[in-house]
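User: Hey, quick favor. My workstation is busy. Could you predict this chain's structure for me?
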Amino acid sequence: MKTLKIVLVVLAVVILGFVGFVATRPNHFSIARSTKVAATPEVLYALVADLHEWPKWSPWEHKDPAMTKQYSGAASGVGQVYAWQGNKDVGKGRMTVMELVPGKSAKVNLEFLDPGPFTNTVRFDFVAAGDKTQVTWTMEGESDNFVHRVFALGMDALVGPDFEAGLANLKLAAETK
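Assistant: No problem, here it is.
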């Protein structure tokens, strides 16, 4: 009986410690990855700014080749919408192009509906660096409740490898264009 009480007290302390830790986390998160690509900013921008080009390099295309995709909104530029639904590895969501600065940056509103709901901002920045271009892929979001803060704790570990794979695919697509 005494051992059970000790186990329950230790378990309660661990749970309270975790809840306290999560509660003190910032309500904003940011994840970023960068790479240099032997292509001009304009070539990279074209692969990112047009959502119809994403299947050429998106890391999630390979996780569920059978996922359903739907394009709507503007045919190109700001207002393009790409919605998807797939297996547990890609879930269900929607991207909307929010801002484009040709050859410089692209900003996308990213909504995860399943799992979710989570809404984040994705940004790609292109900076010429000699005969290469520095590409930075950033995702930012608000962790405005406990569940979102728990997810934010592991977001870099969950999404970071996908960003790295996506940048490698983007590099290949741009350098072979």
